[in-house]
Specification:
By secondary structure, the protein is an alpha+beta fold. The chain has helices at residues 42-45, 84-87, 89-99, 190-196, 199-206, and strands at residues 13-16, 19-24, 29-32, 35-41, 47-48, 53-58, 63-64, 76-81, 113-116, 119-124, 129-132, 139-141, 146-148, 151-157, 182-186. A hairpin with a 4-residue loop joins strand 6 and strand 7 (63-64).
């Protein structure tokens, strides 16, 4: 299906090695700001995984590197990106409205709402995640919830309000000083969630806490 130019943005901008790209979730492409002919397809050119996207970027060609990934040349760098649907939710919604009418029925809203670091999230027991009330692709899995100094919470990268990538911050192997962009945000504990969710769903949340005690600390 040719979606053409049915959606005109605005589009978020991503910088890769000094080159800026529009994140276009309507077309599923990264498009160079200064050269719209230079494009990278999300699914054909990148490794699109559940919680992140991996892109091998060649700063000379300003595009995907297709060579030997076991010994890439110096100008090639691996980038981890957050799911691009979550980064450009307005375009994602516009695309789905066009190609999958009724798509939003898969994202129920008759759920308890909790605040995490000042933002509203649905507590979704079936998805086993907290889901942003305005952006259904921006989620915090229950499996990321842990105990830190007796407090139930989750580590977040405050720049994007998502769980940090493990090479940025690993709560089970933390650096001596918490990176400036990383925060620990409190979430409801098991007892509080039991009051929010039906009993048969509570185990989906509390079960994720079993054995999860951070090795980190909150010193800077």
């Amino acid at each position: 299906m040719d979606l053409g130019s049915e959606y005109y943005g605005p589009f978020p901008v991503l910088e890769l090695e000094g080159t800026q790209f529009y994140i276009n979730a309507f077309l599923h492409e990264l498009i160079e700001v200064d050269n719209e002919q230079n494009r990278m397809d999300w699914y054909n050119d990148m490794h699109y995984l559940k919680d992140h996207v991996e892109l091998w970027f060649d700063r000379q060609t300003k595009n995907v590197f297709w060579g030997n990934l076991f010994d890439p040349p110096e100008q090639v760098k691996l980038f981890w990106l957050y799911p691009l649907d979550a980064v450009d939710p307005d375009a994602t919604k516009a695309r789905l409205d066009r190609v999958v009418p009724g798509w939003d029925e898969d994202y129920p809203v008759d759920l308890p709402v909790v605040q995490i670091a000042g933002q509203d999230f649905f507590a979704d027991p079936q998805g086993k995640e907290f889901r942003d009330t305005q952006n259904p692709w921006k989620t915090i899995p229950f499996s990321e919830v842990l105990m830190e100094n007796g407090v139930t919470g989750v580590f977040l990268d405050k720049r994007v309000m998502q769980v940090p990538f493990p090479h940025i911050y690993d709560p089970f192997n933390p650096p001596a000083v918490l990176p400036e962009q990383i925060i620990f945000a409190a979430v409801p504990n098991g007892r509080e969630m039991a009051r929010l969710l039906s009993d048969e769903h509570t185990f989906l949340y509390t079960g994720s806490l079993e054995g999860q005690q951070s090795n980190g600390h909150l010193s800077r």
